[in-house]
Design goal:
- By secondary structure, the protein is of the alpha+beta class.
- The chain has one domain: NE0471 N-terminal domain-like, CATH 3.30.2020.
- It has three helices and six strands, in the order E-E-E-H-E-E-E-H-H.
- The longest helix has 9 residues.
- It is globular.
- Bound molecules: zinc ion (ZN) (2 copies).
Length: 125
């Protein structure tokens, strides 16, 4: 797993992460905010989004960056929201650069849970 060696972007509209394999990812702060997975933004059980994107200011900035343990980072945004924890692995997967977006699109879809499990079919009459 790649780990960030530098996270920059305080009071800017982009957060730049430099990874230990020299890859650089630039995330618009507003996109990070929109992908917040905290209990206030996404329903804990149903996964239903509770966040209204129209309520997020266009010129959102990050006003605080904090490393959480060994695996994640917490951003506090200029709209006052700061509950979201972003795992490095997910951030790297969501790297918006052209190469990563292309690699993600080329990846075969993850096997669904039904693979290998017999599906109950209605008996044919
Ligand atoms: Zn949130
Ligand atoms: Zn990338």
């Amino acid at each position: 797993m790649s780990l960030p060696i530098e996270i920059a972007g305080l009071l800017r509209q982009n957060v730049t992460i430099t990874w230990d394999d020299d890859h650089v990812s630039v995330y618009p702060s507003r996109d990070l905010r929109l992908h917040c997975r905290c209990a206030e933004c996404v329903h804990e059980w149903s996964g239903q989004p509770l966040l209204d994107p129209s309520k997020i200011p266009e010129r959102l900035t990050v006003k605080h960056i904090e490393i959480v343990g060994q695996y994640a980072v917490r951003f506090e945004f200029s709209d006052g929201h700061g509950l979201g924890i972003y795992r490095f692995r997910e951030l790297r997967e969501r790297c918006p650069c052209e190469a990563c977006v292309a690699a993600l699109a080329a990846r075969p879809p993850a096997p669904g849970p039904s693979i290998g499990i017999p599906i109950n079919r209605k008996p044919t009459p």
